[in-house]
Every structure is written in C-alpha cells, then in structure tokens.
Specification:
Elements lengths: L1 H22 L2 E12 L2 E6 L4 E6 L2 E2 L8 H12 L3 E9 L5 E7 L2 E2 H7 L4 E2 L9 H17 L12 H10 L1
Parallel strand pairs: 3-6
Antiparallel strand pairs: 1-2, 1-5, 2-3, 4-8, 5-6, 6-7
C-alpha cells in the first residue's frame, strides 16, 4: 500500500515537473540589432547569438501594406540599438522566438498598439496573461477611437487578411 502511494506520488511529481518545464518561459536579453517590420526584431545577446524575435500579442502591417513602413519606423524608435528583455514562450513556424519585449520595463508590443501601429493579435490572445490581454484590447479600442496611426484609415486592412489576399495572387 505504501509503495503504491509512493509510486503515484513520484509519477505525479514527474508529470507536473515535465509539464511545467514544457510551459516554461525563457528570457533573451541583449541589444536590438535589426528591425524587420513592425512586429519582428533581431536581438544580439551577450554570447553574440542572434535571436529572431516575433513580438507576442500583436500583428503589424506588412511591408507592402499601408502603414507598414511607419509601423517599422515606430518599432525602430522604440528598440533599435537598445537593450531589451524578451520573455519568450514558444517558437513559431518560421523558427522565430515569440516573446513579450520590454525596453526599460516598457512593453513594446503595447506601445505599438497604443500608437496605432499594430493590431492586438486576437487569434493568439489566449497565450497572453489575462491582465495583459485586457490591456491590449482596451488600448487597441482607445487607438481606434482616437484614429491614431492605421486607425486614421476609413477601413484599415488587418495584416492577416492582407497576407491571405496576397497569397491568392
């Protein structure tokens, strides 16, 4: 009987230990050396390793899309040649690390939303902590109401729709 309980206890510890390891975040710290667009950066860490990082929770206009260049410029002003902390939780299908990015504790993704340079990427919102998700939602609504950035357009096209249409051509 005691052996059975001990076996179950060990199994539970191993299961939850492995499970928490799989869900664990990792942190990338370094200097931003590249900005590909309004939601993707390259960070060089102290070991001279480059990390391609997709900013979690947002989707910015693509390069060929309205506001694409402005979104990239805005992100550059926030992060280029600056020290960042990227709190990552997964890799995407392109091998980029998906991370919440901070400069001096300032949430870069949230700043892109506030200035109207990105959408809150609702397809992946359940990957965000609840409080962060609610703030991103509210800030997008505020930017839209104030017609900041891409919200100045009468009918801004979300990048996921633009990519879909572009792929058809």
């Amino acid at each position: 009987m005691k052996l059975q309980r001990l076996t179950r206890l060990v199994a539970a510890i191993l299961f939850f230990g492995v499970r928490s390891t799989l869900a664990a975040e990792w942190i990338v710290e370094g200097r931003t050396i590249g900005v590909a667009d309004g939601d993707t950066i390259t960070v060089l860490d102290d070991f001279k390793t480059q990390h391609k990082i997709r900013i979690a929770g947002i989707d910015a206009p693509e390069k060929g899309q309205a506001f694409g260049e402005r979104s990239k410029q805005n992100l550059s002003a926030l992060v280029f040649q600056k020290e960042v902390e990227a709190r990552c939780h997964k890799k995407d299908r392109y091998g980029r690390e998906v991370c919440a990015v901070y400069v001096a504790r300032r949430d870069v993704g949230l700043e892109q939303i506030r200035t109207g340079m990105a959408w809150h990427y609702k397809v992946y919102q359940l990957e965000q902590p609840t409080q962060e998700r609610l703030v991103y939602r509210d800030e997008e609504e505020a930017a839209r109401a104030a017609k900041r950035g891409l919200w100045a357009d009468a009918k801004p096209v979300p990048p996921w729709e633009w990519r879909k249409e572009t792929a058809k051509r």
